[in-house]
Structure to design on (180 residues):
């Protein structure tokens, strides 16, 4: 039998270099793929106009200046022009339903004597539910403020808006409509 030649196949240094090039190529491909899968750019949020006779009041203007950039997982979002006066939006991601704030609204029709309220910090809120969202109305500030929250948004948005309301609008006596 003959002994195998020690020099069968490519030199060891060539094999190491080839493996190094292959690993580098895989890293480049994975990096390229990761950057191509980045989140889609934010799109402006459409905010429907609502009857808000006090939207340009000094109280609403003060609130708008005090609004935070973040509401928990939601970041301040650009709104589609024309943006209604006294309105703002936040969004967790481009495909998620936004949090919408409206200031200067008329008294909600369902806010009547005996309506149950919830207190968050020192702000009294009235909740109106709809499919996939709920709208909370701050009813003790003299000017009505609505905060529409998508299902699953958690308590952080209403807590942070309550703090902004506390800083900008003093509490006022409740003014519910007559019972039905």
């Amino acid at each position: 039998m003959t002994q195998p030649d020690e020099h069968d196949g490519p030199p060891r240094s060539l094999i190491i270099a080839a493996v190094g090039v292959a690993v580098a190529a895989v890293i480049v491909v994975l990096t390229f793929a990761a950057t191509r899968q980045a989140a889609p750019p934010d799109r402006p949020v459409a905010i429907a106009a609502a009857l808000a006779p006090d939207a340009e009041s000094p109280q609403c203007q003060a609130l708008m200046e005090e609004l935070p950039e973040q509401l928990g997982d939601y970041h301040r979002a650009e709104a589609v022009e024309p943006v209604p006066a006294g309105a703002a939006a936040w969004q967790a991601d481009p495909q998620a339903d936004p949090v919408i704030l409206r200031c200067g609204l008329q008294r909600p029709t369902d806010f009547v004597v005996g309506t149950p309220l919830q207190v968050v910090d020192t702000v009294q809120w009235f909740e109106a539910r709809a499919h996939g969202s709920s709208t909370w109305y701050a009813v003790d500030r003299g000017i009505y403020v609505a905060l529409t929250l998508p299902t699953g948004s958690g308590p952080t948005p209403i807590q942070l808006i309550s703090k902004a309301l506390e800083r900008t609008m003093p509490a006022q006596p409740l003014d519910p409509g007559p019972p039905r």
About this structure: The longest strand covers residues 123-130. Strands lie at 70-71, 74-77, 87-91, 99-105, 118-120, 123-130, 133-138, 144-150. Residues 12-36 form the longest helix (25 residues). The mean pLDDT is 87.
